[in-house]
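A further point concerns the way the authors explain their paired sequence and structure data. Showing the layout once, in full, would remove most of the difficulty. For illustration, here is how one protein appears when written out as sequence plus structure tokens:
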Amino acid sequence: MAARRSTLKGVVDTSVLVAGIAGFKSQVTTLKNPSARLLRQWVESGNFVWLVSEEILEEYKEVLGRLGVRRNLIGNIVNLLREEAEVLNVPVAVDVSPDPGDNPFCACAEAGDAAFIVTLNPTDFPQAKLRARVISPGRSLPTTAPRRRSGR
């Protein structure tokens, strides 16, 4: 695992994690899959600080299990994130997303001053209500910290 050199912080939506894991089936697929490339870059170069909360880790586990990912692989993924990501205590979820299941991701991004949220479902993350930039995998990661809201 690469040493975490970056101070750029980001939140990874479950859709990106699932697509990335699916993209690891072969080297060719990984190269063509933006989600898999994002995960590989995080592992190899530590190009951002991955922010998670317990609620996010639980969603990752639940969705991966529902999709038939082997339990030992799910355990390895969650353990890796517990060791290498920044686990935040996010006590109160915000009500930002039209999909209530995505509110923990929005809350984590806000609590951790994330520069970005990477997702395959941008409509679930209303940019006007978030400081973090909402991006899709394959887009360049932001190079600056989130903008501050006035009155904060």
